[in-house]
Give the backbone structure.
Amino acid sequence: MATVTTAPRTATPTASPGRTKRRTRTVGQWVVLAVTVIVGVLMLAPFVIMLLNAFKSPADYSANGPLTLPESLYFDGLGTFWERVGFETKLWNSVWTSALVALFAVVVSLLNAYALGVGRVRGRLWIVALFLLANMLPQEMLVYPLFTMMQSIGLNNSPWSIVLIFTVIQAAFGTYLLASVLGSFPPALLEAAALDGAGRWRMLWSIVYPVVRPTMSVLLIFFFIWTWNEFFIPLVMLTTNDTQTVPIALASLQGDRMLDVPTLNAGTLVSLVPTLVFFLLFQRTLTRGVTAGAVK
Amino acid sequence: MPAPTSAAGTREAQQDVPVRRPRRSWRPSPYWWYLLPGGIGFAAIIGVPFVLNIWYSLHRWKGGNAPKRFVGLENYQNLMQDEQFWLSFQNSVSMIVAMVIVPTLIGLVLAAVLFDYVGKHFGSRTASFLRATYYLPQILPVSVAGILWNWVLNSQTGAVNEILRGLGVDSPPNWLGDPGTAMPSVMLVLIWMQIGYPTVIFMSALQRVDPELYEAAELDGAGWWRRFRAITLPQIKPETFVVSLTCTIAALKVFAPIYVLTRGGPEASTLVPSYYSFLNFFDKSKVGYGSAIATVLTVVIIVVALVIQLFQNLSAKREEEGR
């Protein structure tokens, strides 16, 4: 079973507090630590190099190369990028589509999972398997038909197409996860509620929903970040500047020969700031969330 | 992914409550209503396009308002003779090496070292800080990470070659632009992106291992390597399966890193199936052909997923019988 709801457990990876401090550490232990730190530095290196160059002037970059500190802080790269791509539009597109997808997908997942996990409708195993399969599908399998379908209902080049498509795709995963959580929902709770005369709708919102709320908030955060990061379908669906999301806007700058290195770096920097902030806010939830589908 | 074992116990318990009546006509469960919104969305966004894609793959079609001509399996026959198509699947093997095999191995070692070594000797905060560092590339939009690397590896202005020139290398390689180095460069970027995922999963898996196992082994004088092989590896086997399954599927589907780093080039040296189908859809206007590629890719993914799942079931069974 997915154990997303066990928040306290993750907070205590190694027990016996206080023991670590008093031990003398051997040379070998420091070497192992050094190796893990070096791996960490290697993981962060591209970010550091980017940060070093985001505020350099083009002249500074060509004179001193990528590894020096900037001679003086130069914000024109940032300004150029911001204006050229109309960054506030892209940011807003990314924010509202991702937020709506996360919200809708969590609600749809809960409704599905309620029918499958608590309602135990016939053929539920097949239905869950179908949802899981849908989540595995390569998006290339769906993209052209979706493209023509969106065109025929007038949602081509509209961020609403992203909302529709990803609500369903994310809900497929959410259903799988929540259904397995609700499959082991204590029946005593439901029976007690039924005795008190609660209907199914009432039961869902006053008994089931409060219990799975922690799992749902993890899903909410995940759906948001997954949708934010989506590339392929938004690339195909959103064809003009005013509809694109942040990742697409950055990628579309790539062929731009006019672009100098500091501008590119500044662009990369502002494009990852939102995700970075999100990461720092929800680091713990995120790491708990990744393992949600995996840990039985 | 683990099949949801729908708590058989509770089901039997529930069946005991109502008195068994002879089966009459089947009445639909009232819970079906709750599947309605999800079901309609699923049918419209996944079901219908899925079928349509297969239908398109049987046609010759330039897309849009151009006439569709039914050609049966011709697209599939052409695929069999298409060198680029085979090449793209060969490159999928490199993707699996870069996104599954190497990251899983590194992730296993990193997770075990962080959990069982760094965590114990330097405190769990150090361990979780390092874990977060490894995980960072995973949460960035792939295109953002790709653009960043595209610049880092750029032959003219990129950081790597600037450094190499500073060290006195006269003509540093054109990492992404040379057919010989493009694939290894892409693989390195993918490894960098992927490492965090198995590390995080394995670390959380290790938390459910009874610490007494480790303590007993340590008292018996088992070194770190012994403990890794005898305790860590067998204990986190289920997670290893999940990681290999999800990462293999991701490796077969990979698109965005290829799009931003190399666009399948140079000389198709980094072409992958998903990019090849995208190319046919939107660049070459061969929609039927692109649909056929997507369909084949889907079949491959489903088969691979089933094989891995089967392998997991077998291994779990063998373990049960062994006890």
User: Anything to note?
Assistant: Residues 34-74 of chain B form one domain. Strands of chain B lie at 59-60, 69-70. The CA atoms of residues 61 and 68 of chain B lie 5 Å apart.
